[in-house]
Request: fold
Amino acid sequence: MLEKYYNMGQIDRLLRFLFGWGLIFLGIVFTGVINDSLMNGLIAMFGVINVMTSVFRICPAYLLARISTLPKGRANKRNRVDSAIIVDGFDDVKDNRILRRKLQISILLPMLALLVIFAVIAYKLDHRSMMMSITRQVDVAMEMAAKQIISTDSGSDTASAVGSAPPELVQMVSSLSENSELFVQQDANGQIVDSAFSKGEGNEALLRAWLRQSPSLLPAHESDARGMLMFGDEELIWTSMRVGSTDTWLSVIVPSPKEHTMTAYLFSPGFLVLIFAVSWLAIWSSTYIVGIFVDKMESNSRRLQHRSMHDSLTGLPNRQKVESIINKRMRALNSERECLVLVMVDIIDFRVINETLGYALGDQLLVQVGNYLKEVEPGKTDVVRMGGDIFCLVGVIAHNRVNASRLANLVHDKLECTHELNGIPIGLQIRTGLSLGPADSVKPEDLVRFADIALAQAKTQRIKDCFYQHDQDSHSIRKLTLLARLRTAIERNELTLVYQPKVDIGTQALAGVEVLVRWHDDEYGQVSPVEFVSWAEKSGLIDKLTHWVLTNAEKQCQEWRDRGYFIPFAVNLSPTNLFDKELIPLITRLVTEGSFGDGMLELEITENAVMEDPERAVQAMRVLSNMGIRFAIDDFGTGLSSFSYLRTLPVSNLKIDRAFIVDTSQSDKDAVLLRSMIELGHGLGCVVTAEGVEDEATMDRLRQYRCDHVQGYHVCRPVPAEELVRWLQTCDWQGSERAA
Ligand code: C2E
Ligand code: CA
Ligand code: CA
Reply:
């Protein structure tokens, strides 16, 4: 838009340049021809102004267009709420608002004032010179008439005096009396000595009108007086003159020539050029002033815009700017050969660097990271600081994923080295998430979001980089929604518990039930515990979840006990639960005051849970086992357990993971592995439970290997409490005398 006006401005400049020189030329030439130096001077000056303004690029169209692009105060006031950066720039916005107001005044007022002043001056000057030229002729004639009056006898008839005068005077006076409306001779007191009317006696009204205006003036004047007289619609000019040193006054009233009436004057070419020149002058002088203001406003807004679009620490473009960068790159893309890649970069454990080295060094590191990123394929990439320790590299690459990976690798190579900060070596590790335009989307906001999602994925999977995939998106929305709902689901008791029996493989008696949690969400349906338990672990909700499970399982245990079913419960613990300060008090209460006494509670923990912080874990396990709580190692075989540790743990049950149970018939090696695991369990003095038993053949084999307990769909699926009671009453596995 601005360019359009700017081009207009260029044409305008050229025209003004040529026009200006033309006027200067005319002004100079006419000075010699027309004897009116004021008009010629104005024309020439007008020419000079045109040339000057064209040279100094003052163009109203361009300037006004520039003003319209400047940020408006109100819009920025809104931004002020959105962005803290803009707050810094608020003074500039206020400045702009004041400037804008000044500007409006500076355009209008001088233009109007100049126009009026020039018009009035010009009219006055011109009218005066016009009057002088008309009356010049009258003056000469009157002079001669006066001489005649003096040379003949004073008081004699003017006409007769004229009669004996030289022929040229006779002609002049007669032409004068022909044109004049009135010719009067007065004495010093204003008394009319003689009067002549060119249009008959009826013009006495004119005489009276004139006398009302002039006689009082006469005695006061030494020599002469003149003025304008409006008589009806007529515009007249009168001139009075004292005859020599006598007391006689001669006055003549002539009609104002038609070309000198006000209307004729206003439409005369001279006056029009003058008006045009004056307006032009007014416009150009005000646009010159405007230009100065606009420059100031523009530099204000440029500063403001830069500040709101750039990060103050690194000087890099910020999140607000990223979309326009992507748009610009996208437009310049040769879509047949090239594509756009967004590499979202996150520094791992930057918080730790900040906390250990201090924020000043952390800031320095961020600046350095920004600088390093700028060195990755310069010219083809833009670096944006998205906030905190997250940067985004927007790059143009040749079409395919390999090149995108290559760019990500360059980023990794550049940053994952040892950086020196104040002599302290710091090793950086980063994760990157990639999205591709236009393959993933053409919209900048989508590309940024997708790269964010890919980055989150890379972080959760602990991989170096990750490309965006469409299913990640819906997955992450679902995850975020569910995670937010999980807390309320726990608080509102929307979770439920199911129970899966474990039975003695020899006696077929019920050895106990494993408590498994279930969650049905109204929108997303049944959510797998594998999913939400892991989210709860990461978000810190897991302690709350485990408390809920333990409390509700205890209630169920109590209810069954009241009905005569003494069933041992096994509750799953997540790794961090062992370090929860409230866990031991809660279990103590459930054991001493509730139904979990008498060895009714077993806790299943994974090997990894123990290995995370073995000493604290063992300490907590000892406290609990002293209360009569038994421990089972869950998913045995899949973790990183050290057998030496297993020996020291108060564990009474080893649950061999499903992965070792299914399909052992297929491979001898698997069979050997399973057998030795069972033997190891027995060697450690544990009861060995096989998980995920799905058929009779597996049962037989496990019996053969002397496994103690089995759990799995072949025995019973996890079922709600009431169903388990029915199962107990109907199935072959009943052996309540053992469980009781
Ligand atoms: P897990 O502790 O290994 O639980 C056993 C899982 O195997 C259960 O899945 C159960 O339904 C399934 N299963 C049982 N028999 C068979 C079978 O014959 N074949 C097959 N294919 N699967 C069988 P579920 O209920 O989905 O639980 C999955 C995991 O979620 C559990 O694995 C456990 O780690 C976790 N979890 C469940 N409830 C809780 C809880 O209350 N607290 C904690 N911390 N974790 C829980
Ligand atoms: Ca378990
Ligand atoms: Ca398990």
Q: What stands out?
A: Residues 73-90, 153-165, 734-740 have pLDDT under 50 and may be disordered. The first strand starts at residue 182 and ends at 186. The pocket of C2E (ligand 1) is lined by residues 500, 515-517, 528-530, 533, 546, 549, 572-574, 604, 634-635, 658, 692-694, 712-713, 718 (CB under 6 Å).
